[in-house]
Amino acid sequence: MEALTPKEKAPEAGIGIEKFLQGKVMLITGATGFLGKVLVEKILRTVPSVGKMYLLLRAKDKGAARERLKLEFLEAELFKCLKQIYGEGYEAFMMTYVTRPGRIMEDIISIANCMENEVLNSNKSLGKLLPAMILENEMKLVAVCKKNYSDASIVAEKLSELGLQRANKFGWPNTYMFVKAIGEMVIDNMREDVPVIKMRPTIVESTYKEPFPGWIEGHKAMDPLISYNGQGKLTGFIGTVNNVLDVVPVDMVVNASLAAMAMHGVTTKADINIYHVASSVSLPLALQDLFEVYFYEHFKMWPCVDARGKPINVQKLKIITSMEEFDAHLLREATMSTSSSEMVERRKFMEKAKYLAKCYQPFTTYPYRFGMNNTETLWECMSEDEKKKFGFDLKSIHWKHYIINIHIPGLRKHVMKEKCTSKL
């Protein structure tokens, strides 16, 4: 990647993000995911003159695809700002720019069928790096299992275990990150002379500002810890006192992605351009502040309630530095239960907590830091108007306010489905 300098784009003129997006036809995979939905909403709200968006939806037929489109987009709360803007014409507007299900499905399927073997066999470097990965044979084995074995739950569990073992073998803490790395290698090998942008966000959480603060869908990385702490179940967790958790709001990830698209989308250079969207260097979020201050202060002001409607008394989430100490902590908590039924529940929760600790340990105990040099240079290339419309200045985040008054209330409203009085 060639170094990007602000001189390449005059700050007064900016990058030209809106101009670049006007009239563009886009194929968006993963559009029903958390990040994908925020991307679709942002483009439609900010650049209504975009050409078309083709969204790939997994569904058994066109009817099911239309129903999913309606549920995931047209009726989703995330799109309420667009509903307010277009009123009765909202659905017509959406269907104008989001193409009808199935319109290009045949072309996509034919491309997928033709490219399947090429994708699997073309990456020579991947084969050298991962000699144990004979994908074609594994696909055949999976097909045989599907045909001759009926207990899908056991098959899924074993595949999950094997996938994690393989990821660990090649230095990755989980299969999610492992597959991301494989995807990057496949793209590197197959792109030929096509310019490529790689966006690498860290822990993506709820919206900071757009389209409104606190929107989130499903539990993200730090959210199980928040939920269990607020319910009084989790009072300590594995971590290192001086460590940070690298969190970024989803709307800033989307804005940075659009800016990068506009910056490199008009070039003829066949470069690979990499942008980290991360906070660990520019504005570190201290693990100790997060666990022992922000979570605690929120739930002290706005406690969750138990089955009887009584406020739950929370404790500060203590940082525990070893797995042995964490196991002992969980056992002490379980034996302090006041009834046999509560002890049984505590014992069950112990297994969940141990599993979470195993998953989170690489991120809460290791001092990772991700630099943002390219992303900060991209920011400098933007005009003042673009910075307002497509802001991703992570240094502007007020972590205490974001966690206490935006993120946790958003999690409780949109995911935990609570009717609480906490701020947003």
From TrEMBL:
It comes from the Eukaryota. SUPFAM superfamilies: NAD(P)-binding Rossmann-fold domains. Keywords: Lipid biosynthesis, Lipid metabolism, NADP, Oxidoreductase. InterPro entries: FAR, FAR_C, FAR_NAD-bd, NAD(P)-bd_dom_sf. One of its GO terms (molecular function) is alcohol-forming long-chain fatty acyl-CoA reductase activity. The keyword NADP applies. Coiled coil: none annotated. Its EC number is 1.2.1.84. GO terms for biological process: long-chain fatty-acyl-CoA metabolic process; suberin biosynthetic process. Residues 28-84, 150-256 form the Thioester reductase (TE) domain. It catalyses: a long-chain fatty acyl-CoA + 2 NADPH + 2 H(+) = a long-chain primary fatty alcohol + 2 NADP(+) + CoA. Residues 348-418 form the Fatty acyl-CoA reductase C-terminal domain. It holds the Pfam family NAD_binding_4. Belongs to the fatty acyl-CoA reductase family. Catalyzes the reduction of fatty acyl-CoA to fatty alcohols. This is Fatty acyl-CoA reductase. It comes from Corchorus olitorius.
